[in-house]
Amino acid sequence: MLDRLFRRRREARAVADFYLTIAAQARRPAFYRDLGVPDTLDGRFDMVVLHVFLVMRRLKGQGAAAADRSRLLFEAMIDHFEKSLMEQGVGDSGVGRRIKTMARGIAGRIEVYDRALAAEDGDEGDAALQVALDNNVYGTVSEVPPQRLAVLAAYVRREAAGLEAQSLESLMAGEVRFGPPPGAG
User: Fold this and answer.
1) Residue (of 19, 17, 34) closest to 155 by Cα position
2) DSSP 183
3) Where is the Ubiquinol-cytochrome c chaperone domain (predicted)?
4) DSSP 67-103
5) Is it the case that residue 88 has pLDDT exceeding 60?
6) What single DSSP character describes residue 60?
7) pLDDT tens, residue by residue, 12-57
8) What average pLDDT does range 169-173 have in this prediction?
9) pLDDT at position 2
10) What are the counts of helices (DSSP H) followed by strands (DSSP E) for the chain?
11) Which long-range contacts (CB under 8 A, 24 or more apart) does 14-19 make?
C-alpha cells in the first residue's frame, strides 16, 4: 500500500516537473518581444495552453499510459492556474468559478487547435490555424500584423511535427524538446 502511495507521489511530481518544462517554453521572452504576444496574464495563459495542447496532442491515441499522462498533465496545468489565482488574492469562493471558466476555455482552445492542425498544411489549414491563434493568443490585441500570425502558425506546425518525431518513451519519461521561438521577421 505504501509503495503505491509513494509511486503516485513520484508520478505526480514527475508530471508537475514535465508541466513546468512545457510552461518554460511558453514563457520564453521572444514570443512576447518579437511576436507581440501580449505579456499579460491572458497572453501567458494562452501560450501555456497552446504548448500543453501540443504535447497532449502527441500523446493522444498512444495507449492507456499516454492517455493517463495527458490527463495528469492537464490536471497539473489546472492546479498551477488555481495556485496562481490564489496567489493573486482571488478569494476561495471565486477560485472554483474561475477555474471552471478556464477549463471550458481550455477545452474550446484544444478543440479549435486540433481541428486547425488536422487541416491540410496549405492555404486553408494555415488560415484556420491563424484564425485560432488570432482569437486566442492575440485575443486581447485589436490588430495583429498578418506576418506575426503567419510566423506563429508556422511555429505551431513545426513544433507539432517535432513532437511527432520525438519518441513516446522520452515524452513518457518527462523529456520534451521544443525548438526556439521564431523571430517576428
Assistant:
1) 34
2) P
3) 34-178
4) HHHHHHHHHHHHHHHHHHHHHTT--HHHHHHHHHHHH
5) yes
6) T
7) 888 999 999 999 999 999 999 999 999 998 999 999 999 999 999 9
8) 94
9) 58
10) 8, 0
11) 14/174, 15/69, 15/72, 15/73, 15/75, 15/76, 15/174, 16/76, 16/79, 17/174, 18/73, 18/76, 18/174, 18/176, 19/52, 19/73, 19/76, 19/77, 19/80
User: What cell does 118 get?
Assistant: 488536422
Amino acid at 68: D
Neighbouring CB atoms inside 10 A of 88's CB total 9
Which residue's entry shows cell 506563429? 152
- Given a cut of 50, whether residue 185 has pLDDT beyond it is no
Q: How far is CA 160 from the centre of its chain?
A: 11
Other Cβ atoms less than 10 A from the Cβ of 20: the count is 12
Q: How far is CA 136 from CA 54, 89, 141, in A?
A: 15, 25, 10
Rounded mean pLDDT, 91-103 = 73
More confident residue, 103 or 156: 156
Question: Cα-flanking dihedrals φ and ψ of residue 137, to 5°?
Answer: -60, -45
Q: Which residue has the higher pLDDT, 121 or 72?
A: 72
Grid coordinates of 120: 491540410
